[in-house]
Amino acid sequence: MGTIAQLFESGEKSANKGHFNNLVMLARVDGKVDETEIKLLARMAKKLSLTDEQVKEIIENSDSYPMYPPVSKEDRYERFVQLIQMIMVDGVIDENEKTLVNKYGTALSISDEEIESSFKAIVEQLNAGKSKDEVLEVIL
After folding, report:
1. Distance between CA atoms of 131 and 90, rounded to whole angstroms?
2. Contact between 70 and 15 (Cβ < 8 Å)
3. pLDDT above 60 (res 2)
4. Sign of torsion, CA 97 102 108 110?
5. The domain 9-139 is classified under which CATH number: 1.10.3680.10, 3.90.226.10, 3.40.30.10, 3.40.50.2000?
6. Residue 139, C-beta contacts closer than 8 angstroms, at least 6 positions apart
7. How far is Cα 36 from Cα 17, in angstroms, rounded to an integer?
8. CA 118 to chain centre
9. Which of 6, 19, 36, 128 minimizes the number of CB atoms within 10 Å of its CB?
10. Least confident span in 45-49, 59-63, 126-130
11. d(Cα 15, Cα 66) in Å, to the nearest integer?
12. pTM score above 0.70
């Protein structure tokens, strides 16, 4: 159900918490959260304007945070790129991680065909050292 404070949050704050929760779930999917994933989670939390207390709450109560997809195509793809960054950070993309990213891509209203082609392009661009903004320019 969530806390009383959650009931009165802005839509953007709720969406940011839901997105951060998705990143946490991706970090956990391989059974461990390593140091590089923790660092990326910390950077993402800061970008999403989440406090340490909010991060702790999300990590401890991940079932309370649904995903609220952004409206614009650019914002949806930005989230998709961030999800892929999370699974790439430890240097290994396993099938469980890829399956979960595909599921989130669908939740972000990205078609199966776009998920497949974008996933490959995003991985290639990130492996080439491109920034998130440079990756978005290529896939949009």
Report:
1. 17
2. yes
3. no
4. positive
5. 1.10.3680.10
6. 77, 81, 118, 121, 122, 125
7. 20
8. 15
9. 128
10. 59-63
11. 8
12. yes
